[in-house]
Amino acid sequence: MRATRWVMAAALAAGVVAVADAQPGRPGAGGGFGGDPVVTMLKNKEVAADLKLSEEQIDKLKTWAKDYEPKAKAAREEKMKGITREDFATKVPAITAELKAETYKELGGVLKTEQVTRLKQIDVQAAGLRAFGRPEVVSALKLTDEQKEKVKAAGEDAGKAMREAFGGGGGGRPDPAKMEEGRAKIAKAQAEALDKVKAALTDEQKAAWKGLTGEPFDTTKLNQGGFGGGGGRQPGAGGNRGNRPGSTPPAPAKPKVD
Q1: Residue 66 CB: number of other CB atoms within 10 A?
Q2: What is the pLDDT of residues 72-123, one digit of tens each?
């Protein structure tokens, strides 16, 4: 069981997860659901610097987040009631999109329009291949059924690479060198999967993708802390769940953004 947790931690750090962008929480996780992924990302100091947040905005965001996060958590838990493991991949992406839309609407009262747009772009970059499972991205790109199948196949290939990278491990904590080697393989598989999907886009879709992602952001820096105190983990990479005591969180792979 312990080895399995380490395998999943490494896989999540590399960004290789199911294409469905199921961020609000997961059935059977216990202890409720994690923090709002947008708020978690916004607390990151590198994101704050990229957005060029003023001291006044940071102070307002601290107050806003303290009030908003409990309400967002309650809304998330309410919408997740009755979601089974079987329904998770099909129903949660729409719930995630709805909750994020509400968060961004709230942020409009503190951030400038261009800052909200940029925050959304960083969010899409952090999601990597998973972004192609988001309803708003599918709609913006006007993905065809054939393209959706290619996205699914790319996700399955990345998942296979993950299993091969860490398959056959025994009990106990894996060797750090092997973990690093496995992470490198997963990162490579992720980049290749994302490239395959982007290669299948038309010129018009590639232009739309560029609009959704904007200028490249180093998503490996999303593990660093910010105004909220503590580390803000990459959205979709384990939510707000803490690291094991004494452990060093692995850095997620930096996705390519053309």
Answers
A1: 10
A2: 999 989 988 888 888 887 888 888 889 999 999 999 999 999 999 999 999 9
What pLDDT score was predicted for residue 58? 94
**pLDDT for residue 4 is more than 60:** no
Residues 145, 149, 152, 154, Cα dihedral to 10°: -130
Question: How many CA atoms does the CB half-sphere of 46 hold within 13 Å?
Answer: 16
Closest listed residue to residue 256, CA positions, set 209, 194, 200, 202: 194
d(CA 24, CA 103): 13
What is the SS3 assignment for 225?
A: strand
Contact 51, 119 (CB under 8 A): yes
Contacts of 135 (CB under 8 A, 6+ apart): 93, 94, 97
- Give the burial class of 146: count Cβ atoms within 10 A of its Cβ; 0-12 exposed, 13-18 middle, 19 or more buried: exposed
Tokens representing residue 117 in the block: 């747009």
Share of the chain above pLDDT 70, in %: 69
Q: Residue 207 carries which side chain, given as an amino acid letter?
A: A
Top-confidence residue, 13 or 59: 59
> DSSP letters of 167-217?
TT--SSPPPHHHHHHHHHHHHHHHHHHHHHHHHTS-HHHHHHHHHHH-S--
- Token digits for 146? 């054939």
